[in-house]
Amino acid sequence: MKHPRVSVVVPIYNVEPYLKKCVESLLSQTLEDIEILLVDDGSPDRCGEIADEYAAREPQVKAFHQKNAGLGPARNTGIEHATGEYVGFVDSDDWVDSQMFERLYSAAAKCDADIVVGGHRDVVEGHVRVAKPHPLAGVTLHGSDEIMPVRNRLFGHAEDDNTVEAFPMRVWTAIYRNDFLRMTRLRFEEILSEDTIFNLPAYKTAKTITFTGDTNYCYRMDNQSSIMRTFSPTKLKRYEAFLDKLWQLAQEESWQHDECLQRVKRTAIDYCRLYAGMIAGSGVSRREKIIYLRQLGLSRLITEYCAGYPVNVLPSQQRLFHEALVAGHYEIALALLEVRRVLKKKVWK
């Protein structure tokens, strides 16, 4: 029996307005022999029914249903049922250009790669805000001597790295050789930023990784809810759990151990600023914002993971905010966040 060239796993939860656009973009792929695995993660809307409708009329579509377990477990269900030579992932509120998987597969075949990674486009209300090619577009890495220095960037920025964007770690711009996933037993964890935790062992065990210049993945940045963009007081614990895992993986490194740990510290600083920004942009009262900033200032993100980092290497605005937060000057920290939000809005107008 001939296996599909690529199996595309689509985890589904509460995305009824967006699901059909996502699935239609996969059905229009120019790559022949594609398999589409729709995993209904206990969605409370009609997503499960829509998945079943597609599976009933499209032979390349398969639908699976499970109790709500989260994004990582839903992707794992897809991996377990994937029969393709390679496996890719598409979030169900996004969509892809028709040539995406043909181009990724062609690059994989050309280089005999375990992993192929492309770029993406940020899309707001149907308009492309910015195209983001992968910073290593056109590069192919062979063996641990070439891969490991790049893998280190998944732990976070280096001290002398002044780039604003984090090194791309999302799995939805990539495909992974299925035999490679089976051999390594790579699976997603139910943790914040599960893509990073997945890619760290994936990059470590891969023999060849190639990066393309394509930006065929369309990342929807409309006002739908996102765990990475909306404020919740419980998210602080999830950030701490993610840093716990990232620190553990860095501790286990024998290759440039100290550099990996320092990069994790920088990630902790970046996540503090991300969480604080969500607090500032939330609808809670100013008094509550100060309370949540105080909780952040006393959290393990600050007291453990940021401790000892040379903040003088940070950009001036970031350094001022971090110093205010560490010193307990929460009113000043909030004011700096509010100024940043105003300036950012002006830039995007």
CATH fold annotation of the largest domain: Spore Coat Polysaccharide Biosynthesis Protein SpsA, Chain A
Radius of gyration: 21 Å
The CATH superfamily label of the largest domain reads Spore Coat Polysaccharide Biosynthesis Protein SpsA, Chain A
CATH class of the largest domain: Alpha Beta
Beta-strand percent range: 15-25%
- Tell me about the biggest sheet? 8 strands, mixed
CATH architecture of the largest domain: Alpha-Beta Complex
Low-confidence stretches: none
User: Oligomer, anyone?
Assistant: single chain
User: Structural class of the helices, strands and pairings?
Assistant: alpha/beta
Order of adjacent strands in the largest pleated sheet: 3-2-1-4-10-6-11-9
Please give the number of β-strands: 12
Overall pLDDT, averaged? 93
Helix share of residues?
Answer: 40-55%
Number of domains: 2
3D architecture notes:
This protein has 349 residues and is α/β, with parallel strands linked by helices. The chain folds into two domains: 6-220, Spore Coat Polysaccharide Biosynthesis Protein SpsA, Chain A; 235-348, no CATH class. 47% of the residues lie in helices and 16% in strands. It contains 13 helices and twelve strands. The protein has helices at residues 16-27, 47-57, 71-81, 100-111, 143-151, 178-184, 194-205, 235-251, 257-280, 286-297, 300-305, 316-326, 330-348, and strands spanning 6-12, 34-41, 61-66, 86-89, 95-96, 115-117, 120-124, 127-132, 140-142, 174-177, 208-211, 217-220. The strands form two sheets. An eight-stranded mixed sheet has the order 3-2-1-4-10-6-11-9, sandwiched between helices. The chain has a four-stranded mixed sheet with strand order 5-12-7-8. Strand 7 (120-124) and strand 8 form a beta hairpin. The longest helix is centred in the last third of the chain and has 24 residues, at 257-280. It is globular. It starts with 5 loop residues before the first strand and ends with a helix. The relative contact order is 0.11.
